[in-house]
Amino acid sequence: MTVPTAPLPAATILGYPRIGPDRELKRAVESYWKGALDVSGLRERAADLRTGTRAHLRELGLAGASAVPADFTYYDQVLQVTTAFGALPPRFADLRGGAGAASDPSADAESHPGTSLPGFFAAARGEDDRAALEMTKWLDSNYHYLVPELDEDTPIDYIPGFGAVDPTDGPVSQVLEALAAGEPVPRPVVVGPVTYLLLAKAADGAAPGFRPLDRLHDVLSAYGHLLADLWAAGAEWVQLDEPALVCDAWDTPREDVLAAVADAYTWISAITERPRVLVAGSYGSLGDALPVLASTGIEGLAIDLVAGELPDAADLAGLDGKSVVAGVVCGRNIWRTDLEVALATLESLRDALPETVPIVVGTSTSLQHVPHDAERETRMPDDIRSWLAFADQKVAEVRVLARALAEGREAITGELAEDARLRAERAAHPGVNRGEVRAAVLAVTRADRTRASYAERKAAQDSRLGLPVLPTTTIGSFPQTAEIRSARAAHRRGELDDAGYEAAMRAEIARVVRLQEEIGLDVLVHGEAERNDMVQYFAELLDGFAVTEHGWVQSYGSRCTRPSILWGDISRPEPMTVAWSAYAQSLTDRPMKGMLTGPVTIMAWSFVRDDIPRAQVADQLGLALRAEVSDLEAAGIPVVQVDEPALRETLPLRRADRPAYLEWSVGSFRLATGGAAPSTQIHTHLCYSEFDVVIDAVDHLDADVTSIEASRSRMDILPAVAARGFERQLGPGVWDIHSPRVPSAAECTDLLERAAAALGIEKLWANPDCGLKTRAYAETESSLRHLVEAARAVREAADTDEG
Ligand code: GLN
Ligand code: ZN
């Protein structure tokens, strides 16, 4: 047997943020895209970052062989696999690698069969008229991966290349790099084969009925070569991430998923020359996939004991002969681990597992979802900072817990006491438990979440707003110009005083209002120039949130976000949007739409407190927004939109958990909007076209008007919506704002006609797919003109039909 026998270390993490403490990777990659850095310069900066990260993790105590994960990628871990196997769709055929690979000017690239670094970025970002791979959310997180597009003919090869340098600096190169520097061998991390295929989609031209999982054997043979290469490079362990196994809501039936797991890991473990295999099932419980994995010859299993439960004793007994990584430190949120609770979990696990099974203390997921180091947040109040654990603090936690497991809890008496002290201090903080906020939530009644009947509202709104059939509007933001950004930045730095800032924003609002009037839109917006971000804007104005200075996390590729930290009970010290909206309304006779972000989206894009149920947090937000809606009404704003683009992304991975989630999420939206007068028109906006799984929930939001993304899918969803009997108004997007392309009036007309045919023109609105803040003015103006022209054409045609 040539599989190494080295054990895993006592403590590890499943992954570490790869963007760098000061977003070094973002800066390097973006300089390369701008042409300021060449490929070798980029690769050098990336190598420095990786070397620095490994050294840092060793200093933090992840010292042994296989303790440090090697999970670097320039863009995305799923794209890393796609390009290693050359599994690109036909439009990128020239980038697949091997013969005819797009040439990489850096040395060694030709000797490796994989896709070159320029090709890798082309697939990630698109190039000329070739659209990028689609991007979507990774499990229920806020990280986006690039979706593989497969059909029955997509080439999937990995040509053994040991000794060659992978042009995308993949896992083999990372192992070689560390060993060449005389470091302990790291543990390469690769997305596992079943997850890779479950996260893939069937390419457009695929045969009817084709499922990516049908390609399992081809993919396995490529993984086999990759594992052989990793082994030859010196890797002792490899981590194969299989988070898709915790989700039971794929289109593929569960028994097929389980059969694929059995097939894949029986096949992989039969390879004789390979590193030991650790399969990681993060983001929930593996459930019935656990015994299936246990029955294969893999050497280790990482289980998530934060989002998932402790497996049944019988299942644990089946893990004899394997190592178990116990994910008791949360990889996704930023709170200190409750050491008592984690230790108790570890003890129960130890009691239930066969004595021979080594337990490794680990994180529940990769730490890619959390920022680097809470110690750097020196501007945050000291007490709040002391409750936090970012990636580096979590490394310390896994080590402390590993010590307790090895030496007994007496070995960490000091840490347990300190943790208990901080926990008590947090619980006693006056901002954490505010009687008036708790009482207000308790006092919420069903009536608070219920508006007048839709018929009554519709009549009141029709007479108040006097809109034409097929009214036109936008989703809220207008292009964020360089001037707007610099005014905001100058104001933040104190270089522009409040009056100067207000004048700049008012001038922008006035311009946007005039433009919309001139274009002929029916319901106007103020343009959201004052908002850096649709969540952070509210987080900064509400009590109960803290903002970080360095807390960046990767959203996708080089894009990072800095989520706010929701730590306390929430209240609204004063109106947040009313002055801007009221000013905008004062400039026009047309209805102005107030713009708010909904409770679910504020929570989804923040780090949320872990000490009270999410449903309660959502209602606190619902009440704060309800007060804002009421103030907007008092200021004469007749239409209010509450955006919930995240409603679907935080849908639980297990079907059984969905009803409860939808109940509280829908309830919080209704609490936010339920106080609105019948004559106030409530809109909501959702940012995806596949809203079939949440369509009942969307209906229960009881908004008067719902806008959704629909242009790319060419209104495909509408017949299903109509069949379901969606009673209220819908604005399916007719302009794909993710692309700089200007749709013609004819295209918009065609989409509106399809929508009218499915839904009836009386229920229809004309609007873009989403907000315009990432667009430029030139394309925005033309596209909106075409949209208005199309709406008029469809109205007139409908009139003539009737006449
Ligand atoms: N109102 C927001 C905007 O227009 C909505 C953004 C979103 O849906 N993500 O920018
Ligand atoms: Zn949107």
Word description of this protein:
With 803 residues, this protein is of the alpha/beta class. The protein contains 27 helices and 21 strands. The strands form 6 sheets. The protein has a 7-stranded parallel sheet with strand order 1-5-7-8-9-10-11. The chain has a 5-stranded parallel sheet with strand order 16-18-19-20-21. It is globular, with a radius of gyration of 27 Å. Glutamine binds at residues 475-477, 528, 534, 595, 643, 645, 685, 687, 770-771, 773.
Q: Features of this protein?
A:
single chain, 803 residues, alpha/beta, 7-stranded parallel sheet, 27 helices, 41% helix, globular, binds glutamine, binds zinc ion
Biggest sheet descriptor: 7 strands, parallel
Beta content comes to: 5-15%
Integer average pLDDT? 94
Ligand list: glutamine, zinc ion
Give the radius of gyration: 27 Å
Measured between the Cα atoms of the first and last residue, the distance is: 84 Å
Helix vs. strand class: alpha/beta
Q: Give a count of the beta strands, DSSP E runs of length 2 or more.
A: 21
Low-confidence segments: 99-111
Provide the helix percentage.
Answer: 40-55%
Shape: globular
Q: How many individual helices?
A: 27
**Strand order across the biggest sheet?**
1-5-7-8-9-10-11
Present the secondary structure layout:
Elements: H1 24-34, H2 39-59, E1 69-70, H3 77-84, H4 117-125, E2 135-137, E3 144-146, E4 149-150, H5 171-180, E5 187-191, H6 193-198, E6 201-202, H7 216-233, E7 237-241, H8 254-269, E8 276-281, H9 289-294, E9 300-304, H10 313-317, E10 323-329, H11 339-352, E11 359-363, H12 382-386, H13 391-407, H14 413-428, H15 435-442, H16 454-465, H17 482-492, H18 498-519, H19 536-541, E12 543-546, E13 553-556, E14 559-561, E15 565-571, H20 578-586, E16 593-597, H21 599-604, E17 607-608, H22 614-634, E18 639-643, H23 658-673, E19 681-685, H24 695-701, E20 705-708, H25 718-724, E21 729-732, H26 745-759, H27 777-802
Parallel strand pairs: 1-5, 4-6, 5-7, 7-8, 8-9, 9-10, 10-11, 15-17, 16-18, 18-19, 19-20, 20-21
Antiparallel strand pairs: 2-3, 12-15, 13-14
Helix pairs in contact: 1-2, 5-7, 7-8, 11-13, 15-22, 17-18, 22-23, 23-24, 26-27
Bound molecules: glutamine and zinc ion.
Glutamine binds next to loops.
